[in-house]
Amino acid sequence: MPSATSYWTVFHPDADTVVECITVVAFMVLVSVLNLYALAKLLNVCRALASTRAFTKPPLEGGCIAPNEEPVVTIQICCYNEESVIEATINAACSVDWPKEKLHVQVLDDSDSKDDTSNIVEAVAASWREKGIHCVRLTRPNRVGYKAGALTAQNDKIRGDFVALFDADHRYDVNFLRRTMPQFFNKDGSEKKEIGLVQVPWAYYNTHTNLLTEYDALMLDISHVIEQQGRSAALHCFGFNGTGGIWRHRAIQEGGGWKWHTVTEDLDLSYRSHLAGYKFVYLRDIPQQLEVPTNILAHKQQKHRWTKGYWQVLRTSLWDIWTSEHSNFWIRFEAFFHMSSATANPVTLIVIILFAIIADRGIMTLPMIFSCIFVLTVVFTSILCTVYGKVAGAKGHYCSPFFF
């Protein structure tokens, strides 16, 4: 007959056993969370591979725009104290292949007196006006709402039905409009009224500055090469990257316009425009160049802003997405894991710590190890597919010893 001592041992374990049990349970729960995020990423890997035939499919051709029938297009460039890059960006915008009388370049300048940005913009814009290009500098009394506020303040200045948006460090090829605008049209020249946004991926003219820029470029390319392509192919819905895209002006208006209750106004407007009935197109083969952060402080500021903005959009928009008639299960699934993706970072750190504790105590089991393999496999598969499938702009290939 079992003694009272054995009963006590079973039902009242010692402190070490309790700690081990809590550690193992916490580890398995958190690894299960990571597996869900890995599953969401794997779905986009499969979608990207299937939609591009393993990145061998020819690029999307789009419809037909008859000669002399090109629509009026406005290019808006947002800037704030960008004296080192703004001149080259304006020159690139004014040099695109498009009829002069149907191209309007607007620099939304929020710069203050700390640098010479405003004078540079005025001078460059004036020189292009002399060449027949409609290029102007637009200002406002204050910086309320920052970028979203600037876009809202100058929304009524947009000419035509389409507006291309670029940041001050974003350079674009001369054939940018010729390649992207046909996506808004059918083969017979009629408009695809349902297309609200055409987005292109990024290339980086400072990829090889240091190991941080190599890492940043690779992580951003996983988003562009895998996730954006997968979402576009399967869902016709993805987050606008804030630069390097052309919007149908009506899609912006019907989506409620630019709002600054979140610092990622681009993601916010994307989902609201999709809920208004618009579809998006992603052209993976024409990356346009911009700059990635070159120091750890700029990197932290950028990632903090994105993380904060994603959670803001999750809080304000997720319910609308889940209850909208324009959303199906997969869009709801993708929206949640997309907007809450930053959760995976602290969870991963905690899992690594718990893994070390469990291994040190000698209580690691094969199921625990196998539970981590799926996550690692998806991560490495995403990296391999990104490096293989990337359509690089100038200096876009990886040369770091860590990344091939």
Task: Set down the secondary structure blueprint.
Elements: H1 4-11, H2 15-51, E1 73-79, H3 86-94, E2 103-109, H4 117-130, E3 134-138, H5 146-153, E4 162-167, H6 176-180, E5 195-199, E6 202-204, H7 211-235, E7 245-248, H8 249-254, H9 265-275, E8 279-282, E9 288-290, H10 296-323, H11 329-339, H12 344-361, H13 366-389
Parallel strand pairs: 1-2, 1-4, 2-3, 5-8, 6-9
Antiparallel strand pairs: 4-7, 5-7
N-end to C-end Cα span = 66 Å
Which overall shape is indicated by the principal axes computed on the Cα atoms?
A: globular
Helix content: 40-55%
Provide a count of the helices: 13
Structural class: alpha/beta
Radius of gyration based on Cα positions: 25 Å
Largest sheet: 7 strands, mixed
> What proportion strand?
5-15%
Strand order of the largest sheet: 3-2-1-4-7-5-8
* Uncertain residue ranges: 400-404
Counting DSSP E segments of at least 2 residues, the number of strands comes to 9
What number is the mean pLDDT? 90
Outline the structure in words.
- This protein is of the alpha/beta class.
- It has helices at residues 4-11, 15-51, 86-94, 117-130, 146-153, 176-180, 211-235, 249-254, 265-275, 296-323, 329-339, 344-361, 366-389; strands spanning 73-79, 103-109, 134-138, 162-167, 195-199, 202-204, 245-248, 279-282, 288-290.
- The strands form two sheets. The chain has a seven-stranded mixed beta sheet with strand order 3-2-1-4-7-5-8, sandwiched between helices. A two-stranded parallel sheet has the order 6-9.
- It starts with a helix and ends in a 15-residue tail after the last helix.
- Mean pLDDT is 90; it is low at 400-404.
